[in-house]
């Protein structure tokens, strides 16, 4: 994704259905395994900010690279599932 504020592909946001409103958590880790973003709001994706930094500041956006995501959900039948993968951030 490209968090360059052009309105296209600016936010990494997974989609799904059948997920409890309070049964969602997404974490983003850098290549050293440091947690840089977390959200428990299903409709709040990662905008490239680092640890709550201001996305408009020079230090506010993560560097180009590959980041690991971990998404934990609870579905409507109370089954818990975890998904792990990677996302590439490119600044343009």
Précis, in short:
By secondary structure, the protein is an all-beta fold.
Notes on the protein architecture:
The protein has one domain: Sandwich (Immunoglobulin-like). It is globular, with a radius of gyration of 14 Å. The protein contains no helices and four strands. 0% of the residues lie in helices and 40% in strands. It is mainly β and 92 residues long. A hairpin with a 5-residue loop joins strand 1 and strand 2. It has a four-stranded antiparallel beta sheet, with no helix packed on it.
DSSP helical segment count: 0
* Integer count of domains: 1
Average pLDDT: 88
Which radius of gyration do the C-alpha atoms yield? 14 Å
Secondary structure blueprint with pairings:
Blueprint: E1 19-29, E2 35-39, E3 65-75, E4 80-89
Antiparallel strand pairs: 1-2, 1-3, 3-4
Features:
single chain, 92 residues, mainly beta, Immunoglobulin-like, four-stranded antiparallel β-sheet
């Amino acid at each position: 994704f490209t968090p360059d504020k052009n309105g296209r592909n600016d936010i990494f946001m997974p989609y799904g259905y059948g997920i409890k409103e309070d049964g969602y958590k997404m974490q983003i880790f850098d290549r050293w395994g440091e947690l840089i973003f977390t959200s428990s709001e299903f409709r709040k994706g990662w905008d490239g900010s680092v640890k709550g930094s201001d996305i408009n500041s020079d230090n506010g956006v993560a560097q180009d690279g590959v980041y690991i995501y971990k998404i934990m959900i609870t579905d409507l039948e109370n089954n818990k599932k975890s998904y792990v993968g990677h996302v590439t951030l490119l600044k343009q």
